[in-house]
Specification:
The complex is a heterodimer.
Chain A: H1 2-22, H2 28-35, E1 37-43, E2 45-46, E3 50-52, E4 59-60, H3 62-74, E5 77-83, H4 88-93, E6 99-100, H5 108-111, E7 115-116, E8 121-123, E9 125-130, E10 144-148, H6 152-160, E11 165-169, H7 172-181, E12 186-190, H8 191-199, E13 207-208, E14 217-219, E15 222-223, H9 228-244, H10 246-255, H11 273-276
Parallel strand pairs in A: 1-5, 1-6, 10-11, 10-12
Antiparallel strand pairs in A: 2-3, 3-4, 7-15, 8-14, 9-12, 9-13
Chain B: H1 8-43, H2 48-62, H3 66-80, H4 83-90, E1 94-95, E2 102-103, H5 107-133, H6 137-145, H7 150-180, H8 192-203, H9 206-232
Antiparallel strand pairs in B: 1-2
Classes of the chains: A alpha/beta, B mainly alpha.
């Protein structure tokens, strides 16, 4: 009897200790409120998601606007840390930042190391073709299409449109040159990247990005693993931003018709991926 | 890292790539040999302007990187051609009479073949010239002493010896054509290196993909070596002295 009691007491002590250890990284949301600062990592050279404005010398972009909206909701100051693709997970895991908003594609592999919010942006594999020549994905099977070597885009096209002739080039500008020369009839990359290529072209008016995509990468906010309160806060705030129209305003500021990089909005926060992907 | 060998499907891609490499190299070698001989004759022309032009042509093609030349033919020249011609060049049609014709090659193939042929022709021209120079001047003098015309001397005395001397270095140049053909992957031609890169992208089996490509290249080059051995035996070329 006594032995059983001792055992139970011991187990309870261990359980409490274990709970305590689980809470060890503490409630990050509470910590942010207490410190009065939200620390966010964004890109600093990936317009229009995050890049340094040459005149103000501050990082700005779609991701920064979302980060600012989250900080505003909390009523705290926003502190931006520049990052690059390889640094995003280490920054989160080491606790140097509270959130990552850096064109962070949600993948199963990454979800093992960090938590993701609901998606707030989607970039899909799109095309550039001469204006009016490409209107539907059904045409792709009969075309010569330029892609970038070693990209998921190439694999994806080969699987979905096996009759299309793919020609792989070293990078997107090379592929675009081949398109302008008439060697291929379309080129394919992620929509936002294609806009960047087109924005720099001297004869951009003769080309367009048809309004369909054949894949969809969902972009979410990276959150430290196990911070349930913080994740709930980010998710509900994103839904509110869409409901209030602020998400649309942020989108239009970077991808609207008057910007250098106009792109029709194909994804709204809260939408399921399958619907938006045609 | 080493997780088994490539799936049959990917080996198929590599074999397709090898086929393109061999076809491209064979065509380019034949064109380069013929063109190289012509260029060599022009280079040795008694007319100074002709010889000068040929020398300038040879140095232009020998002294610039093949990669740049390929970009020039593929991206540069195609930008100058009219849209309608480019559309025709890129459209799928057939050459020759129906049923006996071959499918029209893609523009990548045409530009690659042109670039590789012109580049290799310049090197082969110099191999021919070296062969001709290594025939001892006494041979020509002896021909004259026998009352032969200079055409007779060229055809009966100089060229047979020059070709015998030049054929080993020329075989080496053909091997270079096979190896240099890998650069056409930069203009999107789906040859062996391109296929290896493609397989690596899909499977992440870098060692297997590039290892197999290496074996294929070694095999192709060994084939050329073996063929030249068979054709000419082991006899060493004449040294220029009369035998």
């Amino acid at each position: 009897m006594r032995l059983a009691l001792t055992a139970i007491t011991l187990m309870m002590t261990l359980a409490v200790a274990a709970c305590g250890r689980n809470d060890a990284p503490q409630d990050r949301l509470a910590a942010i409120r207490q410190a009065g600062v939200l620390r966010v990592a964004t890109f600093d050279s990936n317009p229009p998601f995050g890049s340094v404005n040459p005149t103000t010398r501050k990082i700005e972009g779609l991701d920064v606007d979302y980060a600012q909206a989250l900080a505003d909701k909390l009523g705290v100051k926003l502190e931006i840390t520049p990052t690059n693709p390889a640094n995003r997970i280490p920054l989160l895991a080491s606790g140097k930042v509270d959130l990552v908003l850096a064109n962070f594609t949600i993948t199963e592999e990454r979800a093992k190391q960090v938590d993701f919010s609901i998606p707030y942006f989607a970039s899909g594999q799109q095309f550039i073709a001469k204006t009016g020549t490409l209107t539907s994905p059904d045409q792709l099977n009969g075309l010569r299409i330029g892609v970038d070597k070693g990209t998921v885009n190439e694999i994806n096209l080969r699987e979905k449109y096996p009759q299309a002739v793919l020609v792989a080039y070293d990078d997107t500008p090379f592929a675009f040159t081949a398109l302008r020369n008439g060697n291929v009839q379309a080129i394919s990359q992620d929509g936002p990247k294609l806009i960047g290529v087109l924005a720099n072209a001297p004869d951009a008016s003769g080309y367009e990005i048809p309004a369909f995509s054949i894949s969809q990468d969902l972009i979410g906010v990276g959150i430290p693993k196990g911070q349930a309160a913080l994740k709930t806060f980010v998710d509900t705030t994103l839904v509110e931003l869409e409901a209030s129209g602020q998400a649309q305003r942020i989108y239009d500021r970077w991808f609207g018709p008057d910007t250098r990089t106009p792109l029709a909005r194909s994804y709204r926060i809260g939408e399921s991926a399958a619907v938006a992907a045609h | 890292m080493f997780d088994g060998f490539l799936a049959p499907r990917y080996i198929g891609w590599m074999i397709d790539g090898l086929g393109v490499t061999l076809g491209l190299s064979a065509l380019a070698s034949v064109i380069a040999l013929v063109l190289g001989f012509v260029l060599c004759v022009l280079r040795l022309s008694p007319s100074r302007p002709v010889a000068g032009l040929a020398a300038a042509w040879l140095s232009a093609f020998r002294n610039t990187p093949l990669l740049v030349q390929l970009f020039f033919w593929y991206f540069g020249v195609s930008a100058l051609l009219p849209d309608s011609l480019m559309a025709w060049l890129n459209a799928p049609h057939r050459i020759g009479v129906e049923a006996f014709g071959a499918p029209w090659p893609p523009f990548e193939m045409l530009a690659g073949l042109l670039g590789l042929s012109l580049y290799s022709a310049a090197f082969m021209a110099e191999e021919f010239r070296a062969g001709i120079y290594s025939v001892a001047p006494g041979q020509t003098a002896a021909g004259r002493a026998l009352g032969m015309t200079s055409t007779q001397i060229w055809i009966s005395i100089i060229l047979p010896q020059a070709v015998r001397i030049a054929r080993a270095p020329l075989a080496g140049q053909v091997m270079n054509v096979v190896k240099n053909s890998s650069l056409t992957m930069a203009i999107g031609l789906a040859e062996l290196s391109y296929a290896a890169r493609q397989v690596e992208t899909e499977t992440f089996q870098a060692f297997q993909a590039f290892g197999l490509a290496t074996l294929f290249y070694i095999g192709a080059v060994a084939l050329i070596g073996g063929f030249s051995q068979l054709a000419w035996g082991r006899s060493s070329p004449p040294t220029g002295a009369a035998r």
